[in-house]
Amino acid sequence: VARFDSLNLKNNSDFNSDIPIYVGSLDIDSSKITTKIKRAELTAQITGALNLTTASSWYQGKTETTNNGDEYSIEIIAASANISAGSSITSTGKGYMPSTTYKCKVVGNQEIAQNTSAYDGSSSRGAGASHGGRGGSSGNYTPMEVYGNLFDPYWSGAACRDDQATTAGGGIVRLDLGSGNLVLNGDINSNGGDTAYITGAGGSVYINAGQVSGTGSISARGGDISSGNNETGGGGRIALYYNSLSGFNIENQVSARGGSQTRNAAAGTLYYKNKTSDSYGHLLLNNTGTAGTNG
Fold it and tell me: Within 10 Å of residue 30's Cβ, how many Cβ atoms?
């Protein structure tokens, strides 16, 4: 564990850590932090405020989940957080890599017989990867089943199994502020990777806060296809717990849509709950007007 009273990154600094950070306050200005911490281990505990300003970024640093079962995430506990316009916390494209299931077991690149379901959670060839929503399909192959927990998202997004270049799914971002405020004018994202071929599914985003405000965005969408007639990844899972909203519109600013192109994927899940007034919370599936092709 690395312990500091305060940690300040300024003027295009680049800080990398593969051990947890315990700090009084963390200020990142015009700089980048990259952490490589395994899932279910705390990435950073900040007794004061987390501030990302002037186009700063916090990256999930492990490029992809490895075949031996290692899985990585960004898991932050802080008293409050301010993410300015142009700044971000991101695990986009850092989830399960091609040829693995959501349990990260290698199943190889062998083709599944047409019109049969994939096994062990891995997507069939010719179908986009799934997570909160099913991947897009050409019609000859069945996407993998959805998985994960809509109330407490904690899995990476899957990647399609195929013998051609595909992208990884989204990783995991968890931000727990308790009753502290989140001012979000930048982005928190865990999207599937974009490509010209088959794309990965969205990952997981979990946020617990007091008041949520700002003009920024939260996303765990499936990867998009830049061109052609290939299959896209399904949407991921987002859970947002809060005490109040101030100028923050969940339906417009939070997205777990499926990837888009000709063979579109299904939306993932967006669960949100006002901790002070809701009994059960709300579940929203919003594919932004794009019909899926996953049967």
Answer: 15
CA angle in degrees (0–180, nearest 5) for 214-219-224: 135
Q: Which of 217, 240, 239, 263 is nearest to 88 (CA)?
A: 217
Per-residue DSSP letters for the chain?
-EEEEEEEE-SS-EEEESS-EEEEEEEEES-EEEE-EETTS-SEEEEEEEEEESS-EEEE--SSB-TTS--EEEEEEEEEEEE-TT-EEE-TT-SBPTTB-TT--B--SPPPPTTS--STTPBPTTB---SSSPPPB-SSSPPPPP-S-SSS---PPP-B--SS-------EEEEE-TT--EEESSEEE-PPPPBSS--PPP-EEEEE-SEEESS-EEE-PPPPBSSSS-B-PPP-EEEEEESEEES--HHHHEE-PPP-SSBPPPP-EEEEEETTT-SS-EEE---TT------
Q: How far apart are CA 210 and CA 205, in angstroms?
A: 17
Per-residue pLDDT reduced to its tens digit, 88-142: 999 999 988 776 544 333 333 333 222 223 333 444 456 788 899 988 876 666 7
